[in-house]
Design a protein that fits this description.
- The chain has 110 residues and is mainly beta.
- It has a domain of 67 residues: Beta Barrel (Ribosomal Protein L25, Chain P).
- It is built from one helix and seven strands; from the N terminus they run E-E-H-E-E-E-E-E.
- The strands form two sheets. It has a five-stranded mixed sheet. A two-stranded antiparallel sheet has the order 6-7.
């Protein structure tokens, strides 16, 4: 974590451009979650992220009736390529029994 940044209380996904120094507004569902479910107050730090920009620390500036305004701070994590994850299943039959076992294997490609 970046030095000088308080612990991130929650993470929020945001479409669109993100950069340090921006102000972003969250939609009604995300605002409801931060304010009423997590009960976060203004001046608390949340993580705002997307696949193109990475993750940034953002401070809750104010809540409106249906929106929250965040001030985007320093980048916490740069965007990176995520490995592909494949789910492979194999059915194995036992000779003397009528049972079958499913083997599940997760395979990653880099």
């Amino acid at each position: 974590m970046v030095s000088g940044v308080r612990r991130v209380a929650a993470r929020v996904h945001r479409e669109g451009a993100l950069a340090s120094g921006d102000e972003v507004e969250l939609g009604e569902d995300q605002t409801h979650h931060l304010r009423h479910v997590l009960r976060l107050q203004p001046d608390e730090v949340v993580g705002v992220f997307n696949a193109g920009a990475g993750e940034f620390a953002a401070t809750i500036q104010a809540y409106g009736k249906r929106a929250a305004r965040l001030a985007v701070g320093p980048r916490l994590r740069a965007p990176g390529a995520e490995p592909d994850l494949w789910l492979c299943r194999e059915s194995v039959q036992r000779k003397m029994r009528f049972e079958s076992t499913i083997r599940t294997t997760f395979v990653t490609s880099t």
